Amino acid sequence: MTWTRSQFDGACKTFIQNHGHHVLDKGKLSWSWREHTCLLGFGYMERVISLPKHRRAATVDVGMVQDCMEESFLEPADSAAAAPTFAGEVLCHQYVVLSPTFRVPTFYFSAHDSSGTPLTLTDVLQLPLFRRDAFEGAQVTAFSVEQTCASFPLLSFGDHPTLNVQCWYLHPCGTSAAVEEILDAAEEGDGEEQQRHLRWLEAWFTLLSSLLDLRR
Q1: C-beta of residue 147 within 8 angstroms of C-beta of residue 139
Q2: Rounded distance, CA 93 to CA 147, Å?
Q3: d(C-alpha 138, C-alpha 149), whole Å
Q4: Is the pLDDT of residue 64 over 60?
Q5: Quick one: which of 200, 204, 102 has its CA closest to 151?
Q6: What are phi and psi of 67, to 5 degrees?
């Protein structure tokens, strides 16, 4: 399924109305709808949360990547050696936008420390935003996390489609097929268009939760 702008806007606004401020609905908390300051048709969902910044024993070695542009791999870490230490708070802006290329909802985010400095990929991957095994076995470059057999990176870096600021984002390639599998397994009927797109968005959040811990 691909989305039109009106379908995306309608489903997001209904989602926020149903879930966005429900204190018991972890992961769907505090989302708001934002419009472009000047242009119509570029709205998006947004929330801002604070995350603890931890430093663990290196499970992702991208230092060589930043200096030499060589690639490294994510490997499972020994649990005793990976005990995290608190290193301050991180302000994380999270967005749900309509991908202008793939025409599906896409998760974008930025992360800055208390001084306003953007986090490096090394620090981003150590945030509790990601589940521990989210990128296990993946390949890491300076600005992306990739599966060796995939055509597109899992995590990439680029401009927010509306705000035109640089963000990290989960690549939307394959999103539509994965969400449709969830809906098929749940035996969701077609129903009215508005409800169909709302269920699709809710299933997309379920898919998202396999990589991200949004329970904040």
Answers
A1: yes
A2: 25
A3: 10
A4: no
A5: 102
A6: -90, -40
pLDDT for 98: 97
To the nearest 10 degrees (0 to 180), the angle between helices 5-15 and 193-208 is 70
**pTM score of the predicted model:** 0.82
pLDDT tens for each residue of 153-185: 899 999 999 999 999 999 999 899 999 999 998
> Quick one: tokens of 31?
């989302």
Question: CA torsion sign, 14 to 18 to 19 to 23?
Answer: positive
Q: Tell me the C-alpha distance between 188 and 30, whole Å.
A: 27
Neighbours of 201 (CB within 10 A): 22
DSSP string of 142-161, one letter each residue: TTEEE-TT-SS-SEEEEE-T
Of 1, 11, 4, residue with least CA distance to 201 = 11
**Average pLDDT taken over every residue of the chain:** 82
Report yes or no: 106 and 178 within 8 Å, Cβ to Cβ.
no
* Residue owning tokens 């969902």: 45
